[in-house]
Amino acid sequence: MDRDIRRMSSPVGSRVRIDGREVDYFCGTSYFGLHGHPLVIAAACTAAQKYGIGPATAALTPAHEEAIERACRFFGTETITYVASGYLGPMVLTQALREDYDVAFADCASHYSVLDALRATAKEVVLFRHLDADDLARQLALRVCPGQRPLVLTDGVFPSTGAMAPLPAYAAVLDAYPRSLLCVDDAHALGVIGTQGRGSFEYHGLQGDALYFCGTLSKAFGGTGGIVPGDRVLEAKMRGLSHIPAGASAPSAPAAAAAAMGMRLLEEHPEMRRQLWDNVRHMRAGLRAAGFDLADTPIPIVSLPGAPSIDLRHVCDALDREDLVVLYVPPRGYSDAPDVESLRIAVFSTHTTEQIDRLVDGIRRTL
Ligand SMILES: Cc1ncc(COP(=O)(O)O)c(C=O)c1O
C-alpha cells in the first residue's frame, strides 16, 4: 500500500483510528468534524433507509431538495446547482459562462479542478504568478485585446498552504476591464471564513454581479458533492451550456442528507466557527512561538516548510510515533505545494487546546 494512504477505521475527526491505533488527527478537510458528527451520520442513515443510495435520474429526493434549500439559505443565493463533486464546480462554471468571456487568466498554482476546467474550454488560458496581482495586471495588459472580456479564475484558499488569494487586489485590477469576471473555487473557504461562513467574497467584503464562486459540501459541511451558487440566469446557463448537471449522477441521497444536516448545524451554531477560528489562532500562535514565520489568518490549514538541515519525513514519522498525525507534502506534491517539502497541518473546531499544545510541543521537540 502507498506509504501515505492510511487505513482509517473510524469517522474522520480530531481523534481517529488509523492503522489500528487511536491518534490525534491533523489532516484532511473536515474542518468542523461534521463527517463524524452523530446527527450528520443519523441523517445519512435515515436518508439511506427512506430513499436508498443512488441518486434519482431527472428527479430529486427530499434529501437533495433539503440540501439545495439549506445551501441557498446558507449562501444567500437564489439557486444552488448541486453536482457530483466539488472538482466539477469550476468546469460547470466556465462552461456556463463561456459566452460571457473571451480569454481566461488563472493563478498558476490553482487546484487541478481549476486548470482542468480551463483546459476543457478550448479558449485561450493565461497563467499568472501565484498570488500576484501585479503579474495579473501585466498579463491582462499584454493579452486582452480591445473589446475582449477577461475571466479570472483562482482558488479562494489554496489547499496545501492555506494561502488566501488576494481577491480585492484582483477585483481592483479587473476594474479597468469592462464586463470582466472574477470566479473562485472556494472549496476550502465555504463554511469556514466570512461572518456567516459564506467564503472568500464575504470575508473580503466583495460584492457584485461579476463575481462567481463554486465549492464543495465535502469538506466543512460533512457531506459530499459540489455546489455552484448563483441566480436563475446562471442556473439557466448551466442547464443550457454545461452537460455536467444532467450528464453526471448527483451525490447520493445519504450524502445530500448529511450535507443538509451539516449546514443546519453550522447555521444554528455559529459558535462552531468561532471555536475553529480560536483553534487556528492558538495553533498559529504556538507555532510562531516555536520559531515559524506564519501569517495571522483564520485559515485552518497551516503549512510548515522544510529547510536543508531538516528531514521532514523524519519529523512526520517521529510525530506519528507519538500518535500525532500530520501530512507530509513532498516538493510540488500537490497543485499549490511549495518547491520544498512541507508539513500540512489541518485545524478542526473539535481539536482541544491540549491536542493542539501536544502537537506544537511535538513539533518543537522533533525539529
Ligand atoms: C480547491 C479545491 N477544489 C476542488 C476540490 C475537489 O472537491 P471534491 O472533493 O468535493 O471533489 C478540492 C479537493 O481537495 C480542492 O482542494
Helix coverage percent of residues?
Answer: 25-40%
Overall pLDDT metric: 96
N→C terminal distance? 28 Å
- Strand order in the largest sheet: 3-9-8-7-6-4-5
The sequence of SSEs as H and E is EEHHEHEHEHEHEHEEHHHHEHEEEH
Number of strands: 13
Poorly predicted sequence stretches spanning 5 or more consecutive residues? none
Overall shape: globular
- What is the CATH architecture descriptor of the largest domain? 3-Layer(aba) Sandwich
Keyphrases for this structure?
Aspartate Aminotransferase, domain 2; globular; Aspartate Aminotransferase, domain 1; binds pyridoxal-5'-phosphate; 17% strand; alpha/beta; 2 domains; 367 residues; 13 helices
How would you describe this structure to a colleague?
- With 367 residues, the protein is an alpha/beta fold.
- It folds into 2 domains: 113 residues, Aspartate Aminotransferase, domain 1 (Alpha-Beta Complex), CATH 3.90.1150.10; 230 residues, Type I PLP-dependent aspartate aminotransferase-like (Major domain) (Aspartate Aminotransferase, domain 2, 3-Layer(aba) Sandwich).
- It has 13 helices and 13 strands.
- It has a 7-stranded mixed β-sheet, with helices on both faces. Strands 1-2-11 form a 3-stranded mixed β-sheet. The protein has a 3-stranded antiparallel β-sheet with strand order 10-13-12, with helices on one face.
- Strand 6, helix 6 and strand 7 form a beta-alpha-beta unit.
- Helix 1 packs antiparallel against helix 10, helix 3 packs across helix 8 and helix 5 packs parallel to helix 6.
- The longest helix is centred in the last third of the chain and has 20 residues.
- The radius of gyration is 21 Å and the shape is globular.
- 50% of the residues are buried.
- The model has no long low-confidence stretch (mean pLDDT 96).
- Pyridoxal-5'-phosphate (PLP) binds next to loops.
